[in-house]
Amino acid sequence: MEVELAQELGFCSGVRRALRLLRKAAREYGNVVTLGDAVHNRQVVEELSGIGVKSIVSISEVDSQVVAVPSHGLSKQNLDEIRAMGLSIVDTTCPRVERAQRSAAGLVKAGFQVVVFGDIHHPEVEGILSWTHGKGRALRFPEEMAGIEGSLKSLGILSQTTQNIDAFAAFASKLVSMHLGTIEEVRVVNTICDATKKRQEAALELARKVDLMVVIGGYNSANTGRLAEVCASTGVETHHVEAAWELEAEQLKGKRIGISAGASTPDHVIRDVVVRLKNIES
Ligand code: F3S
To answer: Which pTM does this prediction carry?
Structure first.
């Protein structure tokens, strides 16, 4: 069995920064809560919980003087509510997510109707939309725009940071061409982050030359899910796993295996997978 790692995989700079800030906050305050998981990875969330950084799902559960904003950001309403409670905030929002939020706010201020290419149920997208003051919507397909054509004169299009660049380009181009009859002005802001793009390109390159891809990362991690989609799109057998123990020896023996990992997957989880693959081989 041959095992090859993608050129770019695992923790991105945004996640490393968030973890640095959270560990520092835990040392300083002892007890910190994050509204939603700090990053979308079970092992990281468990490790953080061990040092006093707990995840909560709603503001009503806050039992600390310090609330951390996750790397994928929060809605403006949530931030206002936390500030109104007089709590301290540790803001670990990734600068790339902040840029998407600012782009959305700027487009609305300039009079544009905003469309975010992404998953409406993802907290990052909810956060970005909250900066549009009701003048934005999230879509996964251009066809979902039906029903509001009448008001579409100025259209601003941006993306969830973890989407695929080609899918975003196809989405924006189709959306614009479907509504050219009513649109007077279009602005497209590429808010897909570099880390996402590089991990997808590296995974794609590797997927084209191996028999099977293992993509490691949280099942709730949008960027890991996208990596698995990108690999599978080449036709190669692709397995998305959260941890090494999920790998089944029978599926892997004698194959050339490529490994990729999402931006919130810790190095030690990737190492565990490599060790397990080597053990299967021997
Ligand atoms: Fe930020 Fe991109 Fe990572 S948005 S958290 S650098 S995947």
So the answer is: 0.91
Residue whose CA is closest, atom 4 of ligand 1?
Answer: 96
Contact between 244 and 276 (Cβ < 8 Å): yes
DSSP code, position 145: G
Please, is 237 exposed, middle or buried when counting C-beta atoms within 10 Å of its C-beta (0-12, 13-18, 19+)? middle
Q: Is 192 in the pocket of ligand 1 (CB under 6 A)?
A: no
Q: Is 94 in the pocket of ligand 1 (CB under 6 A)?
A: yes
- Residue recorded with tokens 């979308």: 40
CA-based R_g, the chain, Å: 20
pLDDT level of residue 23 (50, 70, 90 thresholds) = very high
How far away, in angstroms, is 98 Cα from ligand 1 center?
10
**19 C-beta closer than 6 A to ligand 1:** no
Q: What's the N-to-C CA distance of the chain in angstroms?
A: 9
Least confident of 87-96, 198-207, 251-260: 251-260
CB 40 within 8 A of CB 236: no
Residues 6 or more apart from 261 whose CB is under 8 A from it?
6, 9, 10, 215, 216, 217, 224, 227, 269, 270
Which residue owns the Cα nearest ligand 1 atom 3?
14
Count of CB atoms situated within 10 Å of the CB of 155: 22
Q: Which atom of ligand 1 is nearest to the CA of 12?
A: 3
Instruction: Specify whether the backbone of 30 is left (phi greater than 0), alpha (psi in -120 to 50) or beta.
Output: left
> What is the DSSP annotation of 28-74?
HHS-EEEES-SSS-HHHHHHHHHTTEEEESSGGG--SSEEEEPTT--
Phi-psi region of 6 (alpha: psi -120 to 50; beta: other; left: phi over 0): beta
